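[step 3/7] inverse_fold.run input=structure_tokens len=442
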């Protein structure tokens, strides 16, 4: 805490956000005056804060009966300035521990750390790079109002698609310039910016690096974009499929493994050829990603995105530079050999999505699985390979013992119960479609 205190005073920080991710990927925590944080040191917080559903329900039944405090332990490497506050304010991401110092198993950051520890045992270090797709919409007056594309500086609404248009990108330059400036302030290593296929849809790629650090960055990036969009009279949307007739939003994860002692790409042999473990890793993704889909498609809306001919996958075929496949191998040299997992929607909790894809690859390595042949044609002609509903995905995860062992029994049980509560709440609703087509016609 001395090191943190010195940094805070050097930067004139008045307040500090002490935060952690709950299971949905939302930031929870406390705002403390700097002097109070330094004097207090370690913080305490209710465990139920981790297990809130997306509908805002605190699921008290998923934590011990008395809901005892957990310890919040700051990760000094996460210390950053916030770009959107009036007074100088910093943030600190915290790990959640029980009183005896053991990790709280249903803390998303701890789930990822658990998987990474297994790689460390093998002398390997995962390297990842997420692509963050999202929409900017005009502000809505009601929560049930359909989203609309933002207006241009000339007051025109973006209604005709212009995929990858630089002109459309420039129309959102005030907000996006502020996002990129915020990324620089927060140490989020943003790289490529482009206008995506959908009306008002954008993408920012984060540069590759350590999996835990990139999960932290993706977690903070969503919050930065939302705050910045609000300041510019816009609404940022990270739903997987916000518009029925427009493109869904993904968080593709590029992933490779390097040897911890040398930094050499473990997917490549010394002569530059593919190492056998590259195939094992791909085969693990093929075998286990359908069972782990609940972590990559966490909401009922997520399953609308996984449809043919929408730049989203419907199976776990793999191929070289083949975007119809769930697993794409980009053009790369031996040093950068990697696989792109195209399954996750941008609605994921980044910690859990990283944990899931790395866990599936790890199981392929340890089981020395063999992949199918790479696909040279369209994967959309192959069978659909995933659960079609959130409920089926819950059941598939609960039945996959290798994933349960790797991710943690208590985590999988808690997460599954949380998702079951969201499924029940969704099915209590009567939708606009039912009113429109059934009210007078059946």
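[step 3/7] decode complete -> sequence:
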């Amino acid at each position: 805490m001395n090191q943190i205190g010195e940094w805070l005073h050097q930067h004139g920080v008045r307040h500090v956000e002490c935060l952690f991710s709950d299971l949905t990927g939302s930031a929870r925590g406390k705002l403390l005056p700097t002097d109070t944080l330094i004097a207090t040191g370690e913080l305490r917080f209710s465990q139920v804060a981790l297990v809130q559903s997306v509908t805002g329900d605190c699921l008290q039944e998923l934590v011990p009966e008395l809901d005892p405090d957990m310890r919040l332990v700051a990760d000094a490497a996460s210390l950053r300035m916030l770009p959107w506050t009036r007074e100088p304010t910093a943030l600190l991401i915290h790990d959640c521990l029980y009183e005896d110092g053991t990790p709280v198993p249903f803390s998303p950051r701890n789930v990822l750390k658990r998987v990474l520890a297994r790689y460390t045992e093998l002398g390997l270090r995962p390297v990842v790079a997420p692509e963050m797709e999202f929409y900017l919409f005009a502000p809505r007056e009601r929560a049930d109002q359909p989203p609309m594309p933002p207006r241009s500086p000339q007051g025109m609404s973006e209604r005709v698609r212009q995929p990858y248009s630089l002109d459309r990108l420039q129309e959102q330059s005030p907000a996006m310039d502020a996002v990129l400036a915020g990324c620089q302030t927060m140490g989020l290593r943003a790289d490529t910016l482009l206008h995506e296929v959908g009306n008002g849809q954008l993408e920012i790629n984060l540069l590759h690096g350590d999996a835990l650090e990139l999960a932290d960055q993706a977690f903070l990036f969503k919050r930065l974009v939302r705050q910045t969009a609000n300041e510019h009279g816009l609404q940022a949307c990270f739903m997987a499929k916000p518009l029925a007739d427009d493109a869904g939003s993904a968080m593709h994860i590029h992933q490779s493994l390097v040897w911890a002692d040398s930094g050499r790409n473990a997917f490549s042999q010394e002569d530059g050829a593919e190492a056998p473990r590259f195939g094992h890793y791909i085969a693990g993704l093929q075998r286990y990603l359908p069972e782990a889909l609940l972590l990559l498609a966490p909401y009922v809306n997520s399953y609308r995105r996984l449809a043919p001919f929408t730049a989203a996958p419907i199976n776990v075929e793999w191929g070289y530079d083949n975007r119809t496949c769930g697993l794409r191998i980009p053009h790369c040299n031996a040093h950068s050999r990697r696989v792109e997992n195209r399954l996750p929607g941008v609605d994921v909790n980044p910690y859990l999505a990283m944990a899931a894809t790395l866990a599936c690859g790890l199981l392929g390595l340890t089981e020395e699985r063999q992949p199918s042949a790479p696909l040279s044609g369209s994967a959309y002609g192959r069978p659909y390979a995933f659960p079609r509903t959130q409920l089926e995905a819950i059941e598939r995860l609960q039945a996959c013992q290798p994933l349960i062992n790797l991710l943690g029994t208590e985590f999988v049980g808690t997460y599954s119960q949380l998702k079951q509560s969201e499924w029940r709440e969704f099915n209590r609703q009567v939708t606009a479609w039912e009113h429109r087509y059934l009210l007078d016609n059946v």
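[step 4/7] annotate
Residues 76 and 159 are 45 Å apart (CA to CA).
Residues 116-141+148-433 form a domain with the Creatine Kinase; Chain A, domain 2 fold (CATH 3.30.590.10).
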